[in-house]
Amino acid sequence: MLTPEDAFVAALNTCYALMFIWSIERLKIDLVSYTCEAEGHVEEFLDRTSTFDKMTLKPRIVARGCTEDRIRRALELAEKYSLIWQSIKAEVNLEPLIRII
Question: Which whole number is the average pLDDT over 23-30?
């Protein structure tokens, strides 16, 4: 069963993925595959409230005929234009694995 916390993490992951695809197209990069795991850490307080304090995206990217720097530029653009990422108070980390073929 999915929880509201799962939906929140999925919203970040989905929004970032859409902005990454947008940036790849804009930079004319030949994307072969993209997957991304997302994790969120919830901090629990004594008054029984909680909040996300850290979120991590782990994109796995395979591209053809470009440089890793161009992929990193696409990742930066995706972060910049991701409304959800920019709206989150928690620390958001990106741990990409990039492979060029």
Answer: 98
As a three-state string, the secondary structure of 51-83 is EEEEEEEEEEEEEECCCHHHHHHHHHHHHHHCH
Q: Please report the domains of the chain, with CATH numbers, ordered by start residue.
A: 4-100 (3.30.300.20)
Per-residue pLDDT, averaged over 29-52, amounts to 95
Query: In terms of DSSP bridges, do strands 30-44 and 50-64 run parallel, antiparallel, or are they unpaired?
Result: antiparallel
pTM above 0.90, yes or no: yes
Q: How far is CA 36 from CA 45, 46, 47, 51, 97, in A?
A: 29, 33, 34, 23, 10
Is pLDDT above 90 for 83?
Answer: yes
